[in-house]
Amino acid sequence: MLRGGATRSRHRRIPLAGSIGRHGADYRRRHGSALAGLVIGWVVGSYFAVVGALWYGGIDIINHYALRGILWLSGRTPLRLIRYLDSAVKIRLLRRIGGGYAFIHRALLEYFAARESAAKLK
After folding, report:
1. From 92's CA, which of 1, 85, 111, 118 has a CA 20 to 30 Å away?
2. Rg of the chain over CA atoms, in angstroms?
3. Complete DSSP assignment for 22-66
4. pLDDT mean over 71-100
């Protein structure tokens, strides 16, 4: 059951859809081309589809792959990172925890951290 604002929003959408449909029919009557109406509908629909996709998580996906690309181009991670991490799980250097990875031994983590900091000092 819709309440309050959701009900008002639903009632506002229905006239808006009818208004858009009427304008499309008017365009077809004035210009006599169903193809032009279809093209305009496709362009407007595509625009709103792209905006909606970006609004609901698309920007996060773009940021994720951009960061992976930057890390790969700088030589910090391999291109197939998940395959690399899964192979480390297979040989028991890492373990999977939920959606991430963790070192099995604290000493191994400290060894790699010390190597990284020593490389930065050089």
Report:
1. 118
2. 27
3. HHHHHHHHHH--HHHHHHHHHHHHHHHHHHHHIIIIIHHHHHHHH
4. 91
